[in-house]
Design a protein that fits this description.
Elements: H1 2-13, H2 16-46, H3 48-51, H4 54-83, H5 90-123, H6 128-131, H7 134-150, H8 153-157, E1 162-166, E2 171-175, H9 183-215, E3 221-222, E4 225-226, H10 227-260, H11 267-291, H12 293-306, H13 310-318, H14 331-335
Antiparallel strand pairs: 1-2, 3-4
Helix pairs in contact: 2-4, 2-11, 2-12, 4-5, 4-11, 5-7, 5-9, 5-10, 10-11, 11-12
InterPro entries: GPCR_Rhodpsn, GPCR_Rhodpsn_7TM
Membrane topology: Multi-pass membrane protein
Keywords: Cell membrane, G-protein coupled receptor, Membrane, Receptor, Transducer, Transmembrane, Transmembrane helix
């Protein structure tokens, strides 16, 4: 009798049509996201030029994060929406929330790192190769993952809030414990603050690029870069800005609904906002393919390799070439052959 009442309550919160739609979307996004992010990861690692880009390292971090989300969180999400309850036990529920919020933080902090990288390239071009050495890049990547999942350890251990099941919405999330919850603080420092940093950084990038064009218009070189390099870096910056704006468009509705409609007065809007948030882990490969020529070349290179083209295989695996863009951590050594301390990726 109690179970019947509980299921009835769930149906009044989320209409059955809404949960079915959510489950279908979760299944589709899981398959598309796993395939898309896996192909992107392999394509970037196999492409000689992109493999040497600093930005590629952070893009790979983003791909791995999305791959984990699509392969772990989305299948479990589909299951709970189909059954309209969580049936996999409290431990797995805690790990679900841990991976979900940790991956979200990794994605956002990876975008922060990409944005700072773009700004450093434009504003401090002469120091760029010194700032972004191979060791420092790996340290940044390690910090991104440690901080992202480290902030979830207190609620995981029950020290500050707790991870568990919200029965009214059958969702595994951050719950209050002893009247204390880190949810608002995590929202401010884990979502709002990184977004502000990204927005400010891209604003500064826009201002610096505008000033450079105004002062150096008509010259063959801009700030030490050739015109071709400048155009390439500008396209890459535009691509990363597009990724951030899409991420913001996907996650902002969910954040707004969680704050403005905590009592779930509009269940359909919550479902739609959740689906949009899941889409953020799927759309990045589509953005890469649609907006950047080099990334399309990487996908094409992988496709040729899969067709067992011997020329492509020899080019991909035999070449020692890394990117000659200013975005490469080895760029300083390439421009200065007298440097006896090359940076290794």
């Amino acid at each position: 009798m109690e179970e019947i009442m509980h299921n009835s309550t769930l149906e009044t919160i989320y209409p059955r049509e809404a949960t079915i739609m959510a489950a279908i979307c979760a299944c589709i996004f899981s398959v598309v996201g796993v395939v898309g992010n896996f192909i992107t990861t392999v394509a970037l690692l196999m492409h000689p030029k992109l493999r040497g880009h600093v930005t590629t390292m952070f893009v790979l971090s983003l791909c791995v994060s999305d791959l984990l989300f699509c392969s772990i969180n989305l299948p479990l999400t589909a299951s709970r929406y189909i059954k309209q309850q969580w049936t996999l036990g409290p431990r797995l529920c805690q790990m679900f929330a841990f991976v979900f919020y940790g991956n979200e933080a990794v994605s956002l902090l990876s975008m922060v790192a990409i944005t700072i990288n773009r700004y450093t390239l434009i504003a401090y071009y002469d120091m760029y190769s010194q700032i972004y050495t191979s060791t420092k890049i790996w340290v940044q990547l390690l910090l991104i993952w440690l901080v992202s999942f480290g902030i979830m350890i207190p609620p995981l251990l029950g020290v500050w809030g707790q991870l568990g099941l919200e029965r009214d919405t059958f969702s595994c999330t951050i719950l209050p414990k002893d009247g204390r919850s880190p949810k608002k603080y995590l929202f401010v420092f884990g979502f709002a603050l990184p977004c502000v940093v990204i927005i400010v950084s891209y604003s500064c990038i826009y201002w610096r690029v505008r000033e450079s064009k105004r002062k150096l218009e008509g010259r063959s070189k801009l700030g030490g870069q050739t015109a071709k390099e400048k155009e390439e870096d500008s396209r890459l910056t535009t691509l990363m800005l597009t990724i951030f704006l899409c991420f913001l468009a996907c996650f902002l509705p969910l954040m707004i609904m969680n704050v403005a409609d905590d009592g779930i007065t509009y269940p359909w809007l919550h479902i739609i906002a959740s689906i949009l948030a899941w889409a953020s882990s799927v759309i990045n490969p589509l953005i890469y393919a649609a907006t950047n020529r080099q990334y399309r070349a990487a996908y094409g290179n992988l496709l040729k390799f899969c067709k067992n083209n011997p020329v492509t295989k020899r080019t991909t695996w035999g070449s020692r070439t890394v990117g000659h863009s200013s975005n490469s951590p080895n760029y300083g050594e390439k421009r200065n052959p007298l440097n006896n301390h090359p940076t290794k990726l």
